[in-house]
Amino acid sequence: MTAPKRVDVPIEGAPYPVLVGTGWLDDLLDHVALPDGVGRVLVVSQEPVQEAGHLGPVVAAFEAAEVEVHRYDVPDGEAAKSAGVLRELWEACAEAPLGRRDLVVAVGGGVVGDLAGFAAATWNRGIGVLQVPTTLLAQVDAAIGGKTGINLPQGKNLVGAFHQPLAVACDVATLATVAPRIRVEGFGEVVKYGLIADPDLLALLEDRAEDVLAGDPELLEDIVLRSATVKARVVAADEREGGVRAHLNLGHTYGHAVESLTGYDEVLHGEAVAIGTVVALRLGVRLGRTPAALADRAEQLLDRLGLPTRGPVLDRAQVWTTIARDKKADAGGVRFVVLDDLAEPAVVTPERAEVDAVLDELGVIDEPVEEAAPADA
Ligand SMILES: NC(=O)c1ccc[n+]([C@@H]2O[C@H](COP(=O)([O-])OP(=O)(O)OC[C@H]3O[C@@H](n4cnc5c(N)ncnc54)[C@H](O)[C@@H]3O)[C@@H](O)[C@H]2O)c1
Ligand SMILES: O=C(O)C(=O)C[C@@H](O)[C@H](O)[C@H](O)COP(=O)(O)O
Ligand SMILES: [Zn+2]
């Protein structure tokens, strides 16, 4: 075990580190400084994480520090990001009871992190949260940046809060026990970072796709570090998504619609992001902004990594209702992130007909609309 490497997230008023290493959870509290006065923690996790052996070291670290540990396992799957389970977590906070100086500790994937983070953001009007992400997606993305929340049947992440963690502790060794489909979906977000900000990361994924998929630990550590570096820079520049943070939403406008219209069960978040990325890139090509070769390149990489590049066939009206409810829509229209070139993201508000044409071209919508015939035809 070597000491974890550190990426700083210099958010004004709430700076914190993302610590990335391999096999260091046993020494968690040697590297994460606890704030003064922490007497109790509520460790929130899920059964598969416990069964894989990742909870024990975290609990042991707090016990060794003479902090009283309470535990709550939430159900598995995206369905846990719900008002019902959030209420259960509040009640677990009350049972402990957690005071203003106590902490929530989220040990798991993005579902646990988003949900436990929101419980911490709201309990006693906000207490600290330590994020210990154990999936690739959570280490590269979900645990960093302070977006917390739950879903509604009407849409993804519709209720939530910005609540920055005290620290993000990424032990890449935990990724070895993740199911293959879950590992692969994380690359949906990693490809996103490559496309919006880090051409070297994109090239690394292309050059070493097989090693990446085989779970080469050194490579994974490098990928987590590079991804965390991009995310840290973006969220520190724009914590509340007034500007550049919106670029982290590449692939999410259509992706979120795919997730909610398939009941959050069928298509995983990273898979939906891959599907939505193809839509966004093809839209960029159609709008004359994205080079077609770049869209082809991204699609080939997603496919090589085992990610879907086409979503299930959806109902057009439902897609538009869902997209219009997302945070990426306002009176001005629906926003998509496109690429003007590699590492040159831009936010656009396209005409609905342009998006419809792309969805028809990709064959992912029922009831195709005819392209308008040229005026002189
Ligand atoms: N807040 C953000 O900025 C942000 C960013 C990206 C995604 N997200 C959210 O993250 C969620 C998806 O997260 P996810 O992809 O991590 O899925 P997930 O949290 O559902 O985890 C997937 C599965 O892996 C299991 N698991 C976790 N770690 C394990 C380990 N080390 N070994 C064995 N099993 C393990 C979990 O118990 C679960 O069954 C979505 O809700 C998405 O919206 C949030
Ligand atoms: O951190 C961000 O900002 C992101 O957009 C990261 C996304 O990968 C993530 O899925 C996020 O939860 C989406 O945010 P939302 O505000 O569109 O729900
Ligand atoms: Zn995402």
Bound molecules: nicotinamide-adenine-dinucleotide, the ligand O=C(O)C(=O)C[C@@H](O)[C@H](O)[C@H](O)COP(=O)(O)O, zinc ion
Unreliable sequence segments:
none
The coarse overall form would be globular
SS elements, strand count: 13
Short recap of the structure:
The protein is of the alpha/beta class and 377 residues long.
Give a verbal description of the structure.
GO terms for molecular function: 3-dehydroquinate synthase activity; metal ion binding; nucleotide binding. It is found in: Cytoplasm. This protein has 377 residues and is an alpha/beta fold. Helix content is 44%, strand content 18%. The longest helix is centred in the middle third of the chain and has 21 residues, at 217-237. Ligand LNCXM5UN is lined by residues 141, 145, 147, 156-157, 189, 241, 245, 248-249, 252, 327.
Task: Quickly list its features.
single chain, 377 residues, alpha/beta, 7-stranded mixed β-sheet, two-stranded antiparallel ribbon, 15 helices, globular, binds nicotinamide-adenine-dinucleotide, binds the ligand O=C(O)C(=O)C[C@@H](O)[C@H](O)[C@H](O)COP(=O)(O)O, binds zinc ion, NAD, DHQ_synth_AroB, nucleotide binding, metal-binding
List the helices and strands and how they pair.
Blueprint: E1 5-9, E2 16-21, H1 28-31, E3 40-45, H2 47-51, H3 55-64, E4 68-73, H4 83-95, E5 103-108, H5 110-122, E6 128-133, H6 136-142, E7 147-152, E8 155-162, E9 167-171, H7 180-196, H8 199-207, H9 209-214, H10 217-237, H11 252-261, H12 269-286, H13 292-304, H14 316-325, E10 329-330, E11 333-334, E12 336-341, E13 344-348, H15 352-362
Parallel strand pairs: 2-9, 3-4, 3-5, 5-6, 6-9
Antiparallel strand pairs: 1-2, 7-8, 10-11, 12-13
Helix pairs in contact: 4-5, 6-7, 6-10, 7-8, 7-12, 11-12, 11-14, 12-13, 12-15
This protein binds nicotinamide-adenine-dinucleotide, ligand LNCXM5UN and zinc ion (ZN).
